[in-house]
Amino acid sequence: MARSRGGSRFAVFLFCVSYLVSGQIHYRIPEELEYGAFVGNIVSDLMLNIWELPTRNLRLVSEDVKQYIELNRQDGALFVNGRIDREQLCRQSSICSLSLQIALDSPLEIHRVVVEIRDVNDNSPSFSKDEFSLEISESIAPGTHFPVESAQDPDVGINTISTYHISPNDHFGLKVQTRSDGSKSAELLLEKALDREQQSTFQLILTAIDGGTPHRSGTVQINISVLDSNDNAPVFDSELYRATVLENAPKGALVIKINAADKDKGSNGELTYSFTRHVSKNNRELFKLDPLTGEIRVQGVLDFEESSVYELDVEAVDRAPPGLAGHAKVIVGLTDVNDNAPKVEVSSVSSSIPEDAPPGTVIALISVSDFDSEINGQIQCQISDNVSFKLQPSSQNNYKLVSRDFLDREAVPVHNISISASDGGSPPLSTYTSIRIAVSDINDNAPVFTHSLYNVYLTENNAAGASIFRVTAADSDKDHNSDVSYSILENGTEGGPGYVTINSKNGDIYSLRSFDYEQLKQFQVKLQARDAGSPPLSSSAVLNVIILDQNDNEPIIVSPLLWNSSAIVEIESQQLYPGYLIMKIIAMDADSGQNGRLSYQMLEATNPQLFNVDSLAGEIRTTGSFGSQDLAAEKLVLSVKDNGQPRLSSTVTISFSILLNFTDNSFEFTQEQQNSEYLNFYLIILLGSTSLVFLLIIILLGIVTFKQRRNIAEGYNSVACCYNRRNSNITLKQRSATTHTLNYSGPDSADGYGYTVCLTPESSNSEFMFLKPCSSTLPLREVIDRDPSAPTLLYG
C-alpha cells in the first residue's frame, strides 16, 4: 500500500512484492505512481534492527536511480522520488527494472535491490494517420488477404494491442495474426467477390483494441476503391526470407535480394518492390529496398544491443491498373560485434587509509558491465601491478579492492591505483580508471638527531646565558606526529651542577654559567628529542662540550720563596766560578699550551756582567770570577712571561749575599765582621718568619683546593716529600712541604718542562737544593703531550 504525500488523503492498493533472488531483494511496483509512494522496507526485508541505522550509515549507493527511487535513511523505507514512465524508461522491453545498491558500514555490506516496473494500461493504440486508401481489383478472388496498417501501442504485455475489429460489411472480413515478436497485425480478407458495378467503394472502420483493464482502442478509416480486373498478382520465390548481417555493417551493404514473378505480360507483369505499411518508421530508416531490383541494403546504423532481429514485410506490385501485389516476409538477424567497451563503476571509495590498517581492509567496491553479448561481454578486471593492493571477486562482475599488506606513508604517501576492464571480443576493448588513495599518518617514526655525538668547542670565560650551539632532530612523520621538542636528560657530571639549558622548540643550547678551563675542561650532556605523537617516540644524543683555554692566569713564581716579590740568597765566595749555577727560578702558570709556556728575562742587575739568566730554563749562572770589589750584595730583577695573547708576566727581585770563606783564611774579628754576623742573624729571623707565614698560606690554599677537588678535572695534588742535600750524605729531618706542578721553558721543549717541587721554609743559608721526585700531578693527557724525558724536581 502506498500513500501520496499531497494534501488529499486517499489510498491506492499496489501489487508490491519483495522477495530474495540469488542474494538480492526484488520489488514490483506499477508505473506512474505518485511521489512518496511506498516501494518496500530494506530494514525489515534484510532483518536488520532499526536502532543500528544511525551507526551503520544506511545509504543508497546508485546515484543514477535517485531521480526515481529514494531511501529514507531513518527507517529504511524505499519510496518513489519522481514520475516513472515505463515506456520512456524501457521502451518496448518486456522486462523493465531499476537496479539499486544499498550500502551499510561497520561492517561494510552491499545489497543489490531490483525494482521491477510493472506496466499499466496508460496508452491507447494509435495509427500513423486517420485514414488510408486501398484499391482492389474486382477480379480478386475471395479469400485474398490485404494487409492494412498496424496500430502502435507503447504499452507491453497484456496492455498492448490484443485484437482488431472491422466495421460490419458484406464483403470484407478481418484476419488477425500474431507476429514473431508477439505483436498483432491485421489483414483484410475478401470473403465475397467484388462487383464494381454494384459497389465501387467501401469505407470501413478498423479498430485496434488492447488487452488492458479497462480496454483502450484506436481507429482508422479504410477507403477501398474497386478497380477493374488485373487478375494475376505477383508471387515471391519464398514467403519467408532470412538474412544475417554484422551490426557494424557500413551503409549500402547488401542484406538480401528478394524476387517475385507475375504471370501477366506487359505492364501487368512489371513489378515494383516496396515495404508494406507494417514496417515501422525506424526500420525504414535502417534498411532500404530498391524498388526495381529488390535488393535490401543497410541505410542506417545498426545496433545489436538495441535490437538483435528485424522483421520486414515486403510486397511486389505490378504496374497494370489496378496493380496486383504479392507479399513476403524478410527476417534480418544481426551478428554482434565487439563495439562496446566495458563500463567500470567505483563506489564506496575510502579517500584515505591509515598506514597501520590491517591487510584485507576494504578500500572500494568495483562493478563492471558490458552491453555486448556472450563472449564479447565477458569481462576481466584487474589493477596495475601494486604490491600494496589487490582485487577480490565478490560476485559476478563485482569486485572488492582490499589492502594486501601494511602501508608505509613515509615511503609512499599516496597510491594511484589504475583499474582496467577488458572484454572477450576480438580485438578486445578495454576501459581504464584510477583511484587515488591517501595514506594517513601514524606515529611510527622517532625523531632522529643529525649526529649521535656533537663536539662543541667553547672558549672559557664565556658569557652566562649565551647560545653556544643548536641541535636538530628530524621526524619523518607528518603533522603533530613530527612536532619535535627538545630536553636534557643528563646535564653535567653525576651529582654536579647543571651546566646548560635547551630551548624545547628550536634546540638552541644556552650556557648556565661562565666556564673556567682551569676548573673544568670538558663535560657531557645527554639530550632527548621527543615528538608529539600518541604514544610519543624519542631518541637521544650526546653533547660533548670541550672548554678551550684563554690566557687569563699570569705566571706564579714558586721558587725561591718570595716576600713582597723579593728573595735573598746567600752564596759562599768559594763557590763562585764562571758557569756556576747559583739557583734556578721556578714558576708555574695555570694555563696550558702556549698560554702556559714560560720564558725568563733579566730586567735589571747591579753588575750585569756577573750573571746570566737562561731564558727557557730560568737558571741563573755566573759569567765570570768575582773580585774583591764584588763582595758586596748583588741585586737582580727578573721577569717571567707566558706565551699567550696578550702575554702576562710576573717579576722578582733577588738579592745575593756573597759570604767570605773562613776555613781557608785566619784573621781576627773586626767590628765590621761582627756587624755582618748580626745582619745574617736578622736575615735568618726575617726569612724564617716569612717562610712560616708562607707555609700557613699554602696550608689554607690546600684546604680550599681540597674542597673544590670534585669540580676540577685536572689539578694539583699536595704531597709531603723528603729531600737530600746535594753532594751530602746527611739525611735531614722530614719537613712539611707543599707540592706544586710547575711549567718552565726548557731548551728543547715547545711547551716547557713539567716539575713537581716541594717547598719548605728557607734554611739559614737559603740554599737551592735538588730533592727526590714526587708523584706527578699532571693529567695523563698532558703528561703524554709533554717531553717524556723532562725531569720532575722538588725544590725546598
Describe the 3D structure.
Mean pLDDT is 76; it is low at 1-22, 662-674 and 712-796. The protein is rod-shaped and about 190 Å long. The chain folds into 6 domains: 2-118, Immunoglobulin-like (Sandwich); 123-228, Sandwich (Immunoglobulin-like); 230-337, Immunoglobulin-like (Sandwich), CATH 2.60.40.60; 343-410, Cadherins (Immunoglobulin-like); 448-541, Immunoglobulin-like; 556-785, Immunoglobulin-like, CATH 2.60.40. The N and C termini lie far apart (125 Å). It is mainly beta and 796 residues long. Helix content is 8%, strand content 40%. A 5-stranded mixed β-sheet has the order 3-4-10-9-6, with no helix packed on it. It has a 4-stranded mixed β-sheet with strand order 11-17-16-13, with no helix packed on it. A 4-stranded mixed β-sheet has the order 19-26-25-22, with no helix packed on it. It is built from 6 helices and 54 strands.
Choose one word for the global shape: rod-shaped
Instruction: Please give the largest β-sheet.
Output: 5 strands, mixed
Mean pLDDT: 76
- CATH level-3 fold name of the largest domain: Immunoglobulin-like
**Annotation field: number of helices:** 6
- Rg, rounded, reads 62 Å
Helical proportion, percent range? under 10%
Number of spatially distinct domains: 6
Stretches where pLDDT falls below 50 for ≥5 residues? 1-22, 662-674, 712-796
Structural class: mainly beta
In what order do the strands lie side by side in the largest sheet? 3-4-10-9-6
Q: Which CATH top level class of the largest domain fits?
A: Mainly Beta
Strand segment tally: 54
CA-CA gap between termini: 125 Å
CATH superfamily of the largest domain: Cadherins
Tell me what the CATH architecture of the largest domain is: Sandwich
Strand percentage: 35-45%
